[in-house]
From TrEMBL:
Signal sequence extent: none
PANTHER family listed in its UniProt record: SODIUM/PROTON ANTIPORTER 1-RELATED, SODIUM_PROTON ANTIPORTER 1-RELATED
Recorded superkingdom: Bacteria
Topological relation to the membrane, as annotated: Multi-pass membrane protein
Occurrences of domain Citrate transporter-like (ranges): 15-363
Keywords: Antiport, Ion transport, Membrane, Sodium, Sodium transport, Transmembrane, Transmembrane helix, Transport
Chain segments annotated as transmembrane: 65-83, 104-134, 146-175, 182-201, 225-245, 250-267, 287-305, 312-333, 353-377, 389-411
Subcellular location, record wording: Membrane
A cellular component annotation (GO) from this entry: membrane
Protein name according to UniProt: Sodium:proton antiporter
Pfam families linked: CitMHS
């Protein structure tokens, strides 16, 4: 009976995630509620002699969550500052020429989406790039194609670096992959983006005048530039220190954040916002969602509910199972699936874990609600709905599959 209660908590949380839009209840609230309820229920039903063991399991779960939380907190504060100051948007608008073909603009936007999502989180990059597309004089079909490319490219850029996608940092923090080998995923993701861009751009024609659409008189603040450079240096330093001294990236990012707060306090006469106010710009909904999901998955691992995942990997070819899990990520979400696979403690070589990262991240783009970038873009570009996005499903699956194949081919290099 107690186990039934725990399964019910997990099932209710999953249903709340699926029907978030219909229920009007944020998945962050529902998963946190059921995650906490499950652990409380586990304590109550356990015998006195079992509670120390439960406490040890809970403490281990919280330690994993804290490492992820603090890393995301640090990187998201950097991104919130850079985005709030308009640096990303201004840079994109300044590099575009006054006039260009729609097809070349499409390629430029797609490439920009991919490159900037290497540094910024997917939701922020999608928000910025979508706002660039909104004022353009494009027809409905072109807008849908632009949006599809943005969602896929933004998500793809997050595959290769620990700052890009939460799934990548989850698997990296679990010690399943080396930080340098993650860069191989960038090659596969870039190829996948290229395939999709070529497919979507086939029927695009005409020119577009950008001279009246975008203002180009943005004035860069020296402190803003310094903090943007500091963010890039923090990423590079985190990679270097982890590679040569095994220093956890979360420590390097917290150190970088401390420097950012100190540097930002000397803004001269520019007092738009106090530096600590940028912390309020962070998407705490996402952080609370991760917390709730990881609490639930930790509970399921404790009652051995995730053993079935390990059994599936033992029965079927690992690559085939991972490919299917990637497709399921579009429906269920990549965070719950990744957390479940990690907690199942499957024994796989590193190249299979790299394959899993690619699959669960890129699989989330097959359905528009499966990724943060998709949800943000759908809210910004009104022509994009679940059905209009689904029209390009075949192209998305093909691009996803090509990238998956590239990761498999790069496996021997790991």
């Amino acid at each position: 009976m107690p186990t039934l209660f725990l399964y019910t908590c997990a099932a209710m949380a999953f249903l709340c995630i699926l029907f978030e839009e219909q229920s009007k209840i944020s998945k962050a609230k529902s998963t946190l509620f059921f995650g906490c309820m499950a652990w409380i229920g586990m304590y109550i039903e356990a015998a006195q002699s079992e509670r120390p063991e439960i406490t040890a399991g809970f403490n281990s779960n919280i330690l994993e969550i804290a490492s992820l939380w603090l890393f995301l907190f640090s990187s998201m504060t950097f991104v919130a500052y850079i985005n709030r100051r308009g640096l990303i948007d201004a840079l994109m608008r300044s590099v575009l020429p006054a006039k260009m073909t729609v097809k070349n603009l499409f390629y430029s936007v797609t490439l920009f989406s991919f490159l900037f999502s290497l540094l910024c989180d997917n939701a922020t990059t999608a928000l910025v790039v979508s706002s660039i597309v909104v004022p353009l004089d494009l027809d409905k079909s072109q807008r849908i194609h632009f949006a599809t490319a943005i969602i896929f490219a933004v998500t793809a850029g997050g595959v290769a670096l620990i700052t890009g996608d939460v799934t990548t940092i989850m698997i990296f923090l679990a010690g399943k992959v080396h930080i340098t080998n993650l860069l191989l995923l960038g090659v596969a993701a870039f190829v996948a983006v290229g395939v999709l861009a070529l497919l979507l751009a086939r029927d695009m024609d005409g020119d577009i005048d950008l001279s009246l659409t975008y203002k180009r008189d943005f004035v860069y603040n020296p402190v803003d530039i310094l903090i943007a450079v500091l963010f890039i240096l923090t990423i590079l330093t985190a990679i270097f220190l982890n590679l040569y001294f095994t220093i956890p990236p979360v420590l390097t990012f917290l150190f970088g954040l401390s420097i950012m707060l100190i540097v930002g306090s000397y803004r001269g006469g520019d007092k738009i916002l106090h530096m600590l106010d940028y912390i309020r710009e962070i998407e705490f909904d996402s952080l609370l969602f991760f917390l709730g999901v990881l609490l639930l998955v930790g509970m399921l691992a404790r009652i051995h509910a995730l053993d079935a995942i390990a059994d599936i990997y033992a029965i079927l070819p690992a690559s085939l199972t991972t490919y299917v899990i990637g497709i399921l990520a579009g429906i269920i979400g990549n965070v719950p699936l990744t957390a479940a696979v990690l907690k199942a403690d499957i024994d796989m070589p590193e190249h299979q874990w790299l394959l899993l990262i690619y699959a669960v991240v890129m699989g989330g783009t097959l359905i528009i609600t499966g990724s943060a970038a998709g949800i943000v873009t759908m809210g910004k570009i009104r022509e994009v709905t679940m059905m209009t996005y689904f029209r390009n499903f075949a192209y998305l699956v093909l691009a996803y599959s090509v990238g998956f194949g590239v990761v498999m081919m790069l496996g021997p290099l790991v």
